[in-house]
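User: Predict structure, ligand adenosine-5'-triphosphate.
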Amino acid sequence: MADLPVGASGDTRVPTVVADGVHVVHTVRTGARRGGAAAALSRLLRRGEPDPGGHRVHAVKGVTFTAYRGEAIGLIGSNGSGKSTLLRAVAGLQPLTRGTVHALGRPSLLGVNAALMNDLTGERNIVLGGLAMGMSREEVRRRYQDIVDFSGIDERDHFTSLPMRTYSSGMAARLRFSIAAAVDHEVLMIDEALATGDAAFQRRSQARIEELRERAGTVFLVSHAIGTVRDTCDRALWLEAGTLRMDGPAAEVCEAYERSAREG
Ligand SMILES: Nc1ncnc2c1ncn2[C@@H]1O[C@H](COP(=O)(O)OP(=O)(O)OP(=O)(O)O)[C@@H](O)[C@H]1O
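Assistant: Predicted complex:
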């Protein structure tokens, strides 16, 4: 990933992410790769030939778009259409097979699988997660209570003193969101986290996304909840089988997607 080139177009909007012809192919090694001496011998004999145990999935196929400051962009599409893969590619976590991604700053991916540690308490995870998100110790200290309050995990019990493995998946997702949302990001990418919170938490999250956008950031949101995309985003990208089927105002794209789902 490289810094954005300084462009001289008449467009006054500031691009934050430029994806140009992005392709991602996942290669999955199946059973034939493993095994003992017999498998090793068969690999030797097959040298240069394709691995029959290898399986390739062309998850993203030539996706091109430009994201601008202040936009909240929803990524929608059916299961396996390539939304998470595209997000990971933009965040620099997934190698591109072809194409380029230029991004302003370092996009932060806030996933449901973000790296918090199950055996550590919520409290320790807030500190570690905050540091991992680029906060100083002092900032983590200052924002600690806000993060706990925003997540709402202490509302019923003192969960911050308990290991994360005792949390429900919704509580864990809320804590992840709260840590990441405490930092101002140039580009923040959220994978489904909102879908797991309850209604009150979703309202707080939407308000926070709004704030992040106002502070000139770009927010990407992957969601199966079309209502969330419609309410939270102003633009949507619709992926289908790895290709970009539609890119436009969230309301229009969501409507077209729903119509297509209804028609089967
Ligand atoms: N690490 C991986 N290794 C191999 N194949 C993968 C990997 N991750 C995803 N895929 C495949 O790539 C395709 C796109 O998956 P991806 O998770 O990006 O889709 P998605 O739109 O986010 O799906 P969902 O809505 O179900 O979360 C799928 O066919 C999936 O099986």
